[in-house]
Recover the amino acids of this structure.
């Protein structure tokens, strides 16, 4: 055994159920709970329909989480879906998922959440700009890397700082997320209580649509399209629920605690989102909420608080948004490097990523590689481009994971399942169907983002064949 190998650390089971639930919640609650109600209001024009969309999107996400939990309980271990796909579909599909996590899914999530943090900071302390001519310089006719450069550089600074924090040890990063999550939940509950008691709202605001609202039948295609578009907005607010599966090697009793953490975390999130958005719509009439969207420079939650608590209240909520996005960025950084480390063990990723720090027991090289690519993505696009791209890619793999429930029930019915998905086969079948529809519709509604996301995924194929050939040559040697 080489001395280098002796110095390798190992992943340690330091997380219990409570910490796992906190990581699920902190991985999801970010900018969406403050921002997405405005575009949903503009799309639907009805407060009751907006709340319905939050509920539907939450239930669909819960269907995916519960289906995912059956697979996660069967194959608990660090690596999440990479481990699942390798068992269900084989090495190539597993690699394609792992590469997509690196190229698009989680790096774009880190970039976009950190970007909202920087934008919120910029609203309080203006960050520098370059000249208009420099900021409008385009690369490949699609990217403006110097646009809003002050916000982008601040975003990169945040990514680098949080990456460094997590190279010092997972337990410290998890404690940091726990503290921030507690502050966020307390802040959101304070928003709900203060809004309902002192906001001067009325139930009439909940039941009164906008002046431009036109009733449509549920079978009307234009209504279905608007409902679907609103749910897409809500899905960004629910994104991130599956990342707890990446840490199976560091969770006590993962076969039982991963499904429990997914269900418990999603229950907290759905309840929180419904309460917060009910408060927004209770305080602010629908037409005013639609004006927030059309202004383009307002955050719905801040506008609601300013409506009854003035600028001091708005400043406090702006600070809460900073804290929320800080915690969500941190949690999103923590988990994916475990996939890259497992892939490197399979000789299907960059070789150095396999290393575990001998003192801090963290995959430091994987963390820094992720941080570098996330920073590149910050320079390449806007918040909306990044989120649309990652939602398109991630729902393909969400559907594939849930389809795996059916495959494994047929292929290995006797395999131990600590948790069986509730409502089988209807719940997982509905989620798979929804994933297929989302991927198809996005190709028509957002072809640019779908195309870029697909190209980044397919870019991994040459790497796969290179690493696969290198692995085979090594085994022959």
């Amino acid at each position: 055994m080489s001395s280098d190998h002796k110095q390798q650390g190992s992943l340690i089971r330091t997380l219990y159920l409570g910490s796992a639930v906190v990581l699920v919640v902190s991985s999801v609650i970010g900018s969406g709970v403050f921002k997405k109600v405005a575009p949903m209001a503009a799309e639907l024009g009805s407060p009751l329909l907006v709340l319905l969309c939050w509920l539907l999107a939450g239930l669909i996400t819960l269907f995916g989480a519960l289906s995912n939990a059956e697979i996660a309980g069967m194959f608990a271990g660090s690596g999440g879906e990479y481990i699942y796909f390798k068992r269900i579909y084989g090495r190539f599909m597993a690699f394609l998922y792992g590469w997509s996590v690196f190229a698009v899914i989680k790096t774009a999530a880190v970039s976009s959440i950190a970007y909202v943090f920087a934008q919120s900071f910029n609203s309080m302390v203006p960050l520098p700009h370059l000249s208009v001519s420099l900021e409008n310089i385009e690369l490949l006719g699609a990217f403006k890397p110097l646009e809003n450069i002050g916000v982008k550089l601040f975003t990169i600074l945040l990514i680098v700082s949080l990456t460094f924090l997590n190279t010092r040890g997972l337990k410290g990063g998890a404690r940091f997320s726990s503290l921030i999550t507690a502050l966020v939940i307390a802040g959101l509950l304070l928003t709900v209580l203060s809004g309902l008691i002192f906001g001067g709202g009325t139930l009439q605001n909940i039941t009164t649509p906008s002046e431009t609202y036109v009733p449509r039948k549920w079978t009307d295609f234009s209504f279905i399209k608007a409902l679907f578009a609103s749910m897409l907005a809500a899905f960004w607010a629910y994104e991130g629920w599956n990342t707890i599966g990446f840490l199976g090697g560091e969770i006590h009793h993962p076969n039982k605690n991963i499904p429990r953490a997914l269900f418990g975390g999603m229950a907290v999130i759905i309840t929180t989102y419904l309460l917060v958005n009910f408060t927004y719509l209770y305080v602010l009439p629908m037409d005013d909420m639609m004006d927030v969207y059309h202004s383009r420079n307002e955050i719905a939650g801040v506008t609601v608080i300013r409506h009854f608590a003035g600028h001091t209240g708005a400043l406090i909520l702006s600070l809460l948004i900073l804290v929320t996005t800080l915690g969500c960025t941190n949690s999103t950084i923590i988990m994916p490097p475990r996939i890259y480390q497992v892939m490197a063990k399979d000789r299907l990723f960059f070789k150095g990523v396999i290393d575990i720090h001998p003192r801090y027991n963290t995959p430091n090289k994987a963390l820094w590689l992720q941080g570098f690519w996330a920073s590149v993505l910050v320079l390449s696009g806007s918040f909306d481009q990044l989120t649309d791209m990652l939602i398109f890619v991630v729902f393909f793999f969400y559907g594939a994971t849930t389809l795996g429930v059916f495959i494994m029930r047929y292929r290995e019915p006797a395999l131990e399942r600590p948790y069986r998905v509730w409502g089988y086969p209807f719940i997982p079948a509905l989620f798979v169907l929804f994933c297929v529809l989302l991927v198809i519709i996005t190709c028509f509604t957002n072809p640019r983002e779908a195309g870029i996301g697909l190209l980044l995924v397919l870019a991994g194929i040459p790497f796969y064949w290179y690493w696969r050939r290198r692995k085979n040559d090594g085994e022959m040697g």
Q: What stands out?
A: Confidence is low (pLDDT under 50) at residues 1-11. The chain has one domain: 3-476. The two ends are 19 Å apart (CA to CA). DSSP finds 21 helices and no strands in the chain.
